[in-house]
Design a protein that fits this description.
The protein is of the alpha+beta class and 180 residues long. The protein has 4 helices and 13 strands. One of its GO terms (molecular function) is catalytic activity.
């Protein structure tokens, strides 16, 4: 199965969900044009409170559509963009790629994966029980975060629903994704 972009979203204000768009423009070094989280330094409010000069490793939030499918099957009313993602993917296990993986989205845009999104209380506030649903435990009891991955824009370009995604892994040895 080929990997594709299912939907794209922008949030111009600090709200939980993002609005669907026909296309988003990714800007190298900044993020999604018009999105509140775009910038060279952190824009997520909790990160700004800690240290506003930190580099923004969370310019783009990517989430696999298969998580939406799983959550709907469990009775949650969720749609693409509801969980705050900029890019909804289909056919790509974004949670299993190593740090530094580059995703070529459409004809030009490139996003480098920096780590896992750390689900927070806002998910629970959006839908009761949803925070527990996007967290899991592996066979060793370690916490598994399923709320997508974060990345930085390496190469600018427009991204649209239906665009193909080409995955390019970094050189070995690979580093597992950690929360960013």
């Amino acid at each position: 199965m080929k990997s594709t972009v299912e939907a794209v979203h922008v949030g111009a204000a600090h709200t939980f969900s993002k609005e669907p768009r026909a296309l988003v423009r990714l800007v190298a070094g900044l993020g999604v044009e018009g999105d509140v989280h775009a910038g060279e330094t952190v824009k997520h409010r909790s990160r700004v409170r800690q240290d506003p000069s930190q580099p923004n490793l969370r310019q783009v939030h990517l989430l696999h559509a298969e998580l939406h499918d799983e959550l709907r099957a469990r009775g949650f009313d969720v749609r693409s963009g509801d969980l705050g993602e900029n890019v909804t993917t289909r056919g790509l296990d974004v949670l299993s790629v190593p740090r530094g993986t580059r995703l070529h989205l459409g004809p030009n845009a490139v996003v480098e994966i920096t780590g896992l999104r750390n689900p927070c209380q806002q998910i629970e506030d959006f839908r009761a029980g949803l925070l527990a649903a996007v967290l899991d435990r592996d066979e060793h009891g370690a916490l598994v975060r399923k709320a997508g991955v974060m990345g930085i824009v390496v190469t600018s370009g427009d991204v649209r629903p239906g665009d193909e995604i080409e995955v390019r892994f970094p050189p070995r040895p690979w580093s597992a994704l950690e929360r960013v």
